[in-house]
Amino acid sequence: MASHHIPLLSSFLLILAAIQGIRAVNYAATNTASNTSDGVHYTVTNTARNTSGAIRFDNHIGFEYSLQALASTTYFIWKLFQQTNDADKKNVSKVSLFIDDMDGVAYTSNNEIHVSAKYINGHTGNLKGEITGVFYHEMTHIWQWNGNGEAPGGLIEGIADFVRLKSGYIPSHWVQPGQGDRWDQGYDVTARFLDYCNDLRNGFVADLNKKMINGYNVNYFVNLLDKSVDQLWSDYKALYHKKASIYVCGCMCTRIFL
Length: 258
Known about the structure:
Elements: H1 2-20, E1 32-37, E2 40-46, H2 52-60, H3 63-80, E3 94-100, E4 106-109, E5 112-116, H4 117-122, H5 127-143, H6 153-167, H7 187-200, H8 204-211, H9 220-225, H10 229-257
Parallel strand pairs: 2-3, 3-5
Antiparallel strand pairs: 1-2, 4-5
């Protein structure tokens, strides 16, 4: 009886693989792995093979997980940006990840993500969670629109960290909501502000990204939220200042009654 079911199971697995569009290659000898998912070809290459960081990448993250993470991160970004058809998305057919023996953390250029093996080696805590968060940030740079280079760098980095925020893979050292000096300060500061704006209008960041296909204008905030970005930043700061005041008052009152 069991022998009759084996061909059926094999056929099912082949069909499932075809549906997912995944094609894996042997990476043990080449230090490279690849697959294709949803029309995008992904490759992972460890160029820092003999370094401690490269070995730690192999042991704690690995090629297979990285390929899965790249594909799932892409899908997450498309969904968050509400890009339901090809016309809404960037025309990217290949994304390459490199683990390099370099300083810093990571950077993205020409649809290539470069992650530092030195950073991997030196990171303490949840390494896989941290690098997954880096994947979300860097992959956003591949799929987001940047206003043809006209958008503020702080906004571009803030959107990338907004995606990381929504993914849940954020480090403990990030600023708390309401902190920061400028709305376009970038990274976690701007990500927290954009999260506030997104609460005011569900899908705000997706709409803002869509507007930046061909250019950038600070009045996009007015178009979408009926307030200037400076007024929104002022409201945001005031909101969390008020919350902090209430918290402090609550703590003081508790101490008085104790």
